[in-house]
């Protein structure tokens, strides 16, 4: 980073806690990536080894004094803790360190605020921030003195604190009402897709696993993808044509992260419900990540929280181009169904295997037969070609088209319905007898 870059960024001193509790421990490297994603300049990194937390500062008073000296030495603008702080701990630390202090939740909320571009995304982030801020509103001494009354202060009215809280409650209600409308609109859209019998596929995974790169590869779209945490925040849905399946919707969703703040899960519930309502989840995994298993467990935990853990799931081990001697391949379960696909979204290696696995999991009833189509069904024949359902074709002595088809039954039923034909009767009448 150049000096010019550092000059326009906030100087951040990072505090990472190693408390020997695997369930509460955070990844120090991920912490630094989060801070960089927020746009801060890291001036120093402090690791605190402490088996138990304190109520006043979270860490010991001696360590607080040491950090205060480092803040002066490095001229830090703020101190960021890789752990959740209570409102009182945050206030106590700010007084002791003489600068702003934010915790891991505040850091993630800030990144989300930067990444939200759509109206819905901005509302969701604002709701999470307001609910986080509401716990930080406390009475100052002046507020308390005003509560006791005095000349010009008696009678009706309210303290600044109460005003802030009231305005905050009003804004939260307004945002929730707007998001409820968004949720209803999404429900209507999902019901419309269900009526059209269009399968829904949703990409999920740990942040920076490569979901957006894979989404772009599958849809040939230009969704923003970058090597940074939470590059994608606002959901994107595209229509994709799959052989044997027909049209599907593919959704790219926000990345998950270790100990994703509950406020964010709640605020983004309307967006995350795209995953819960899907017919198939593609769980994108960074195959080369050192803490791959922990990341997988974090994603599964969030899926359980949003009631999406019963949806059929296909693991997609991405970034195999960063690993030695790993070729694209499909791993199957005892029943022969695809469980994992190893590929590289960046290079495109193994994408055809992913499409094959998706086809197998989405098509539970495939029609494979030979049809004899007279001239009056030429429009139907043309549509079968458009759907790439015709494997091969020849003509009989009467000039009728004899086609070998391979198509999902749901897609064939939809096509025949549009042509005013009953599927069962049609197949009985036009299937070639052997």
From TrEMBL:
It comes from the Bacteria. Residues 165-192 form a coiled coil. GTP binds at residues 205-212, 230-234, 252-255, 318-321, 344-346. Keywords: Coiled coil, Cytoplasm, GTP-binding, Magnesium, Metal-binding, Nucleotide-binding. Its cofactor is Mg(2+). GO terms for cellular component: cytoplasm. Residues 199-366 form the Hflx-type G domain. The keyword Cell membrane does not apply. It is found in: Cytoplasm. It holds the Pfam family GTP-bdg_N. GO terms for molecular function: GTP binding; GTPase activity; guanosine tetraphosphate binding; metal ion binding; ribosome binding. Monomer. Associates with the 50S ribosomal subunit. GTPase that associates with the 50S ribosomal subunit and may have a role during protein synthesis or ribosome biogenesis. Belongs to the TRAFAC class OBG-HflX-like GTPase superfamily. HflX GTPase family. PANTHER family: GTP-BINDING PROTEIN 6-RELATED, GTP-BINDING PROTEIN HFLX. This is GTPase HflX. It comes from Thiopseudomonas alkaliphila. The gene is hflX.
């Amino acid at each position: 980073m150049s000096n010019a870059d550092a000059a326009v960024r906030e100087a951040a001193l990072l505090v990472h806690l190693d408390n020997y509790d695997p369930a509460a421990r955070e990844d120090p490297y991920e912490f630094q990536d989060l801070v960089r994603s927020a746009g801060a300049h890291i001036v120093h990194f402090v690791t605190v080894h402490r088996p138990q937390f304190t109520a006043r500062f979270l860490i010991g008073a001696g360590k607080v004094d040491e950090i205060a000296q480092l803040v002066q030495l490095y001229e830090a603008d703020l101190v960021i803790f890789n752990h959740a702080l209570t409102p009182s701990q945050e206030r106590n630390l700010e007084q002791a360190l003489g600068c702003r202090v934010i915790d891991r939740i505040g850091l993630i909320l800030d990144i989300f605020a930067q990444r939200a571009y759509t109206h819905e995304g901005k509302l969701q982030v604002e709701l999470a921030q307001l609910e986080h801020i509401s716990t930080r509103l406390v009475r100052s001494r002046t507020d308390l003195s005003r509560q006791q009354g005095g000349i010009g202060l008696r009678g009706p009215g309210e303290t600044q604190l109460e005003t802030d809280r009231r305005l905050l409650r009003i804004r939260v209600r307004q945002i929730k009402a707007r998001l409820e409308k968004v949720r209803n609109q999404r429900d209507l859209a999902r019901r419309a897709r269900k009526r059209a019998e269009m399968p829904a596929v949703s990409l999920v995974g740990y942040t920076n696993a490569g979901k957006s790169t894979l989404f772009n590869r599958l849809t040939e779209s230009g969704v923003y993808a970058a090597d940074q945490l939470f590059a994608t925040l606002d959901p994107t849905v595209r229509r994709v044509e799959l052989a044997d399946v027909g049209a599907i919707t593919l959704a790219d969703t926000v990345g998950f992260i270790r100990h994703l703040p509950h406020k964010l899960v709640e605020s983004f519930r309307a967006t995350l419900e795209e995953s819960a309502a899907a017919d198939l989840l593609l769980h994108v995994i960074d195959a080369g990540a050192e803490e791959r298993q922990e990341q997988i467990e974090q994603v599964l935990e969030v899926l359980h929280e949003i009631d999406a853990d019963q949806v059929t799931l296909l693991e997609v081990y991405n970034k195999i181009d960063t690993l030695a001697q790993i070729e694209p391949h499909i791993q199957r379960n005892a029943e022969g169904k695809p469980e994992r696909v190893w590929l590289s979204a960046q290079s495109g290696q193994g994408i055809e295997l992913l499409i094959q696995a998706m086809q197998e999991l989405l098509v539970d009833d495939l029609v494979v037969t030979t049809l004899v189509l007279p001239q009056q069904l030429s429009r139907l024949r043309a549509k079968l070609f458009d759907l790439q359902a015709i494997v091969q074709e020849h003509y009989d002595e009467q000039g009728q088209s004899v086609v070998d088809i391979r198509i999902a039954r749901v897609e064939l039923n939809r096509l025949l319905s549009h042509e005013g034909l009953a599927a069962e009767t049609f197949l009985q009448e036009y299937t070639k007898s052997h």
